[in-house]
Amino acid sequence: MATSQIKDCQLCFIGGGNMGAAIIGGLLAKGSTSQQNVIVSEPWEVNRKKVEESLGVRTTTSNIEAARDANVLVLAVKPQVAKGVCQELAASWSDSNRQQLPLVVSIAGGITLNALTQWFTVNDGRTPRVVRVMPNTPALLGEGASASFAGAGVSEDEKKLVTELLEGFSKVTEWVDREELIDVVTGLSGSGPAYFFLLVEHMVSSATALGLPKEQAQRLATQTCLGAGRMLVETSESPAQLRINVTSPKGTTEAALKSFAESGLQETVNVAIKAAVDRAEELGNAAFASTG
Ligand SMILES: NC(=O)C1=CN([C@@H]2O[C@H](COP(=O)(O)OP(=O)(O)OC[C@H]3O[C@@H](n4cnc5c(N)ncnc54)[C@H](OP(=O)(O)O)[C@@H]3O)[C@@H](O)[C@H]2O)C=CC1
Ligand SMILES: O=C(O)[C@@H]1CCC=N1
Predict the structure, then answer these.
(1) Alpha carbons 161 and 167: distance in angstroms, whole number
(2) What is the 110 CA–ligand 2 centroid distance (Å)?
(3) N or C end of the chain: which has fewer CB within 10 A?
(4) What is the CATH architecture of 6-182?
(5) In angstroms, rounded to a whole number, what is the distance separating the alpha carbons of residues 185 and 168?
């Protein structure tokens, strides 16, 4: 493609919901792109206004208009509507005889490259190059974790461009070497922030039930998680060693960890992550089989 740096690209987001807005927020905060280089297509007025007012980028209700000048198109809609969106765009490119198709970055959970390539095929047989990416919502703070898998025909320069895009809102950017692993990443880091928030909710409600005022419990639990997270990132210790360092022999932590083990925490986590991975595959299959 002609442009080799994200700051020079026209970025189009199809879908300005939670994840689309988080990515744009992260990119703007880091200065990786500018407001005039971003356009968001979003049918829901509430989200459109939110994106316009909080991020200051252009919006439209027309996917075709949003994609018109795009070098990079981020597909940020729910898996259930992806097929219709891709087919609508492909039909518009067929009609316009557009020479250069945008590089597509799809964050739609479970939607395979095979499906995307078919749906995006233009009537002369051309199809855009597509990269599947699984980001997560900490993108909003520039603290995302993202993993990617490139489809056929994506060049090394285009992979570099995608890495640059992801580095605008992610602290960790990985490339996986098999497409199925994107679903595993979905179960790990895509959905992961929600597991973490649930754990914090449970910690706060336990402490509250034992008499600590809720706001105090929330403040203590939040800082505990932030501090522990920073230790994971900033020390060279493994998670296991950091856990051991907290666990005094015959002390309080040991009592809690023993209780977790007896309740089958590892098995619970295994089953939960597998459920997310399986659900990604199901969503992809259902979208591929759908008529809409
Ligand atoms: N949320 C997350 O943490 C993550 C999400 N993802 C993936 O990102 C994608 C988006 O998720 P998320 O942002 O949470 O979902 P949201 O529902 O918050 O955002 C999707 C947006 O797309 C809009 N939309 C619906 N139909 C169309 C259409 N035809 N054209 C353009 N926009 C449309 C929706 O509007 P309306 O509400 O009116 O339907 C909505 O505002 C999903 O595929 C998900 O798997 C990936 C990683 C993490
Ligand atoms: O829940 C979902 O399906 C999306 C994918 C990863 C996070 N949210």
Answers:
(1) 10
(2) 9
(3) C
(4) 3-Layer(aba) Sandwich (3.40)
(5) 19
CA distance 107 to 171: 17
**Which residues lie closer than 8 Å to 209 by C-beta, 6 or more apart?**
none
Its sign, for the CA torsion 9, 185, 47, 284, is positive
Ligand 1 mean position, distance from CA 111 (Å) = 13
Nearest to 42 by CA among 85, 8, 92, 105: 85
Instruction: Give 93-137 pLDDT, tens digit per residue.
Output: 998 878 899 999 999 999 999 999 999 999 999 999 999 999 999
Residue ranges per domain, the chain? 6-182, 192-276
Which CA distances in Å does 145 have to 95, 115, 139? 38, 25, 7
d(CA 136, CA 114): 23
Strands of 11-14's sheet, edge to edge?
58-60, 38-41, 11-14, 72-75, 103-106, 130-134, 144-150, 170-175
Cα angle, residue 30 at apex, residues 25 and 31 outer, rounded to 5°: 100
Distance CA 16, CA 43 (A): 9
Residue having the nearest C-alpha atom to atom 3 of ligand 2: 109
Does 140 have pLDDT greater than 70?
A: yes
Going from the Cα of 22 to the center of ligand 2, the distance in angstroms, rounded, reads: 13
For residues 281 and 109, is the Cβ–Cβ distance under 8 A? no
145, β-bridge pairs: 172
Question: What is the residue whose two structure tokens read 């605008």?
Answer: 168
With a 6 A CB cut-off, is 150 part of the ligand 1 pocket?
no
User: What values do phi and psi take at 225, rounded to 5?
Assistant: -70, -40
Question: CB-hemisphere CA count at 13 Å for 146?
Answer: 32
Q: What is the pTM of this model?
A: 0.96
Write out the two tokens for 30: 């880091």
> Does domain 192-276 fall into CATH 3.40.50.1820?
no
